Amino acid sequence: MAKSYYETLGVSRAASEKEIKAAYRKLARKYHPDVAPNDKTAEARFKEINAAHEVLSDAEKRRKYDKYGDRWEYADQIEEMERQQSAAGWARQGGPGGNGGATFEANVGDFGSIFENLFRRERGGPRGQPPRRRGQDVETPVEVTLEEAFAGTTRTVRLQGAEVCRTCGGSGEVAGAICHNCDGSGQVLRERRLEVKVPAGVKTGSRVRVAGEGRPGTGGGPSGDLYLVVTVLPHARFERKGDDLSVEVPVPFVDAILGGEVEVPTIDGRVLLRIPELTQNGRQIRLANKGMPVLGNANARGDLIARVRVLLPEHLTAEERHLIEQLRALQGGRAGAGAGQ
Ligand SMILES: [Zn+2]
């Protein structure tokens, strides 16, 4: 490995401007072509000394050299790459203006892979451009009631998105210094609110897609999509199976025996249901098109299944008891058999 510029001038890394200047003058006088004409070794040394002095006597060049070593001339490009990677959410490994006390060797190691990327990209697309890649999809859970799933609803989703830093306009620098608003990344995270329509007919597990609201792409690639992942909350009255709903319908025992009409609650109002005579307890009666809307098909609906629960009286008047006793006698006087259910 070549000598470092500090070694060339014979000074320490901590040398002051004055010490560097003094060391340079002393060496330049010694190896100057006028002093040692036709001495090829001295001529080469003189060139080395001048190259070292040119970098170490310039505060900005010395800073870059301390950080990137022989790659110091690529410092601007490396730092630009670092900004992009930082903006892309990569962990920063000590950046410009970061750890001032970081050692020369450690920093070269840290930026090695970035340096490789720089050249890989130079051979590929436009210099400094990250590869064109679609952004990641983002999922966010939402809960809706059965009524909301029936009618459709909206949800406001909060998104954390990267935006161009307003302080530095995305350059990451203000007057030559690292922008403190964005820490040099050129981007800041900002919360956005997005109103999303949840269509009628969604089920638990339905994914509502919002195109282009996922993570931003890189290198001009498109953004990913946002997905709302739906959970439909349980309902106190209705049970759901696919697009069908079911509901328990209490029917007085007299109506169950003789037939009649009962009111049935549906998800969008009440309807009258005709109960045929001799309806057994637990019988299921299907009410067509009174269930949930079919997702993506505005005109189609599932069915409502009415589950009959025959109600026995909890109290009997003397007269009622008398009539039922008469009924039992009529059926053959067999106590506990054949009557009722
Ligand atoms: Zn900024």
Describe the structure.
- The protein is an alpha+beta fold.
- The protein has three domains: 5-123, Helix Hairpins (Orthogonal Bundle), CATH 1.10.287.110; 138-232, HSP40/DNAj peptide-binding domain, CATH 2.60.260.20; 243-311, Urease metallochaperone UreE, N-terminal domain (HSP40/DNAj peptide-binding domain, Sandwich), CATH 2.60.260.20.
- 31% of the residues lie in helices and 27% in strands.
- The protein has nine helices and 15 strands.
- The strands form six sheets. A four-stranded mixed sheet has the order 8-9-15-12.
- α2 (17-31) packs antiparallel against α3 (40-56) and α5 packs across α6 (104-123).
- It is rod-shaped, with a radius of gyration of 41 Å.
- The chain starts with a helix and ends in an 11-residue tail after the last helix.
- 19% of the residues are buried.
- Residues 89-127 and 337-341 have low confidence and may be disordered.
- Zinc ion binds next to loops.
